[in-house]
Each structure stands twice: as C-alpha cells, then as structure tokens.
Structures
1.
Amino acid sequence: MDATTILNTVVTGVVGLFGAVAGYLGATKAAQRQINANKTQLAYEYAKEKELRKAQEKEIAAVKALIAELKENQYLCSITEFYPPMSTDIWSNLKGNILIFSASTQLAVLKAYHTIKTYNGVREESIYTAQSPMIKATEVLSIHPDHDASQKNLKMLRTLVYQSCIEADQELTKYLASFTS
C-alpha cells in the first residue's frame, strides 16, 4: 500500500464520517421538528377537546334547566285552587335556540312552550278583562262575564300544558341520555 492509497482511504473515511455525522444531525433535526409538530398538534387537539367538553357541559346544564322548568310547570298544572302563570324563564334565556336537538325533541319542546304561552296569554286576558291584576284567577273568573268559557279554556289549556310538558321532558331526557352512551 502506498501513501496515496492510504491518503485516499483516510480522506474517503473522513468524508464518509462527515457525511454520516451530517446525516445523523439532519435526521435528528428532522425528528425534533416532527416531535415539535406533534406537540403542537396535540396541544391544539387538547384545547379543541377541552373547548368541546365545556360547550357540552354548558349544553347539558341548559337542557337540565329546561327539564327542571318543564317539571315546575307540570307541578303548577296540579294546582287547582287558582291558575298560576307558567314559567318560561329558561326558555327565554335559551332564546329558542333548539337546533341542537333532534326534530322530534324540537317539536316536543316547541309544542310545550307554545301551549304554555297560550295558557299564559288566556290567563292574562282573563285577569286584565277583570281590570284587577291582583285578583286570584278563581275570583277573576267569577267576575269575568265569560266565566264558564274562560274557566273551561284554562282547564283545557292546563291539561294540554301538563301533557306537552311530559312529552318534552321525555324527549329532553332521551337527549341527555345520548351524552352518557
């Protein structure tokens, strides 16, 4: 072996070593970029999941509040001494935003609150017709010239409110069950 061959072999070995080191550094740098990209993607996915979970919890709380209001109205329907106004506070807070529900749930909730609004309207009309909003509904109806018609309407509407509240309650309960399954 002469000096040129040895020198050629050493130079080739050094160049090969530099190539290997450069390849290793390039691969390490690429792997680090991939790890950073994965970390960024995971952080994004985590934030997205956290936001989705918060929105879902808010939605569940709203549905539970709606169910509670419907149950309250069912109870108010059982009061026979007078005709109390039915509650629509939660419905008003939701601003009627029910597109998240299935079509059957939307229909049941709309029917319940439409019936409640009709009942409350007839009740208010009876009170204002008697010119005294402080009088109990039973007293108003005894003063009101259309006593029998108003009382029958309110009784019928109270029954409809009760039934529609039960239907909406059942639909919303099914909707809530979909979150746990």
2.
Amino acid sequence: MARFLTRRYAAVTWAEAIRLAALDGTPWPEIQGVEEAYLLHREEWWAWWSDGRLTTAIGLPESLCSQSLSLDVIGLISGVWESYAGTLACGWATLARLEQVLSRERLPQPENTHGYDWITLERLTVRFTDGSEGVFQCWHKGYDEGFECQMEYLESGV
C-alpha cells in the first residue's frame, strides 16, 4: 500500500492526495509519498505505519481500521499526539513496542514550573512486546492555551 502526506492530510492513493492537497494548499511537489507502507494501527486522529512513521489519520478512508497496538500504547501515544509536544523524545517506534504499563508512580511536582501553570511527573514501568521491561518518565505541562505531554525512555532491563 502506498501512503501520501499533504500538509494536513494522509491518503493511500495519488488521486486522493491531489484532492486533499487542493484543500490544504500543498503544492504537488511537496506531497510526501512512500510506495510500501502498511497501516498497522489507526485511531481517530493518528495512524501508525509499517515504516515506523506516525501520521495524521485525517483523510484516510474509514475502511482502513487496523488495530495492532495495546490499549496502554494507544493512551500514551494519544496523550502526546493531542498535546503541543509535536515529537516524542523517546521516539514513536520505542513507544509502539510497548505491550503494557506495569506500574505508574506519581512523582512530586517540581518547585519551579518554569512558567507553566502546573507540571505532573510520572514514572512508568513497562513491558515491551519482546518481554523485556523498561522505565519511562512522563510529564504533562499545562498552561492557558493547552498542555504538553512528553515521554523519555530512562532505562531497560528493570
């Protein structure tokens, strides 16, 4: 399956990519295309592909509805995707390898929030799909316009 990305949309055919590019003003030469990328998981706002790319799901046909990621992974990816974080410090591929969150430990809020209204820190112990375990630190930073969620991979082999 092919995948095409405009500034705001994803498509699986060139014809649909051209139609969507007209909607968001993407010049044809700027449409990003990949010949072999298979949809592994799709949520309302994002899609995970076989080439390790996380993209918008807006524009994809409703008939494409693969569901290969665990509920824990879906929640974590959605938390970052829906925030103002943009990219993920630990990488989307690392997060997609998660099978389960084994435990969550709430950490004390730092005294200095560096201009944010609030900060929440969590330490997550996780199990990956290969059976190994690891630890992530997750933080949410809130302010008037919204929030930022970020995750950092701290260690493996816990």
3.
Amino acid sequence: MWTVNKLPRMRSQEDIDFMRKNYKVPSKYTNFMDKSDINQIVDFWQENRADREISAGGGAKHGKGKTLRFPWKWEELGHIVGPYVNEILKTKAWRLIAGRMYLVHNDGRKWDTVHTDNWNLVKTQPVAAPTNNGNKFWDWLEENEQHKYYPWRTIVFPLQIKSKVTSTVLFDNVYFGNDCLNWNRDNEQTRNYIENLQSEDLISDEVYDKYLNHVDRNLVKGMEIFDIYDWQLGDALTWDSTQLHVSGAMEFGETKLGMTVWTAHP
C-alpha cells in the first residue's frame, strides 16, 4: 500500500521505515472483554463523570450537541484494561500515551472528523503539549523534540450502545507524521503525505449513505475503506494509530460510549 515518498515534517526516512515495518492492519476481537469488567468501567465513569467530563473537540460548529470526553488515569483502570491491551499487543513492552472515554451522541452535532491518532500527549504530565496539531503544536515540538515518539495501536472498547447502527470506519490510508491529522481541515496541505490516496471515488453510494452520510463526500474521494467495524459490547477494535478513520454515522438521538487506549512503541 505504500505509495508516498515525501517525508512529513520532522520525520526522517528512518522514522518512516520503522513505522512501515511495524504497521499491522486493523482487527476486531470478538467477545473479548468480560461483561463484569465492562460494568466496572461504566460504574467508574458514572461515579466520576460529573467532576471530570468535558466537551470534546472536532465538529462543534455543526450543532449544539456535545460529545463528552472523560480522561482517566492508568492507576484507576489499568488493572482492568491492562491484561486486554497486553493480549492485543502480544507483549507487555509498550508505552501508554493516554486513555479516555467518549460519550458520542447525535443531538444536532456531527462527529465527522476524519483523523489519525498520531499524537495524544496533550496536557499530560510531565509532557504538556498544548494541542495535538497546528502551529502551537509544531512550535512546542521543535523546542521539545526529545518527546517525539512512534505511535503504535489505538484500541477501543465499546461500553454502551444506544443506536441502531454504531460503527467506526477505517480507511486504507495512513499518515506517518508527528501530529494528529485533521483531514477535514488540513487535507490540501497534507495530501502529499497520505499513503495510498487515489484520484477516483472508491466508496459506493450504499456504503456512503449508511455509514458516512455525515461526512462531506468530497473529503473521502480517493480514499478506500479498509473495513467498517460495527460495535458490539465485549468486542475490542484496534488499528495502527497512523490510520485514517472516522466515527460512523448515527441517527438523531442515538448515543455510544467507548473507552480508548492510545499506545506507543517503547
């Protein structure tokens, strides 16, 4: 799938070669997390959300509804989540970048940002990048280059599903830059760095209407879908953090709650 040779900002050919060598396709683990563990995590979220939950970014301009982000610490939930992550990665030698839960709901807002998870050391002690992309990010990284890292896997555990169709759409395209790519905003500036980007429309009307109707069709022109993962409680979804993806379309009033773990190579 590798079709781009142009190096992203502050990435060497050695960096790109390492990430290409260690890239693995997305996968789904069925009936993976015990129901008792799901219940413990949801109970923890319900007990603490009033003090900790904040509005998530990306797409707020589309409506008044708020997708809510709930940060959590490894010492709080790592004893539950850690064994699952170790099994997915087939090793205990990995680095935690961050963990969050997201309550995504469609009540007037579209959760429509096509993006990657390359950088999520944001306001996390002792590293405090001001954001995960944009000018402030690059200014910070140029002064703190020692904190560059190789992103590894994004892992999502569905926790609550209150919708007819709940999905994550994974594209067969990757971006090996340091920053989290916001494709909706930066597609013109970054398309020369996207692997496997084509010129024609590769997504059928049927798939677009069911899973991507909340996303501008022109944004996904030239992208090919690797897979669409329909959420089921107990499953785990995982993909390379450099892979472009987007939350699937949801009907008005529907919600989903998931836990995300971002990992990096040690």
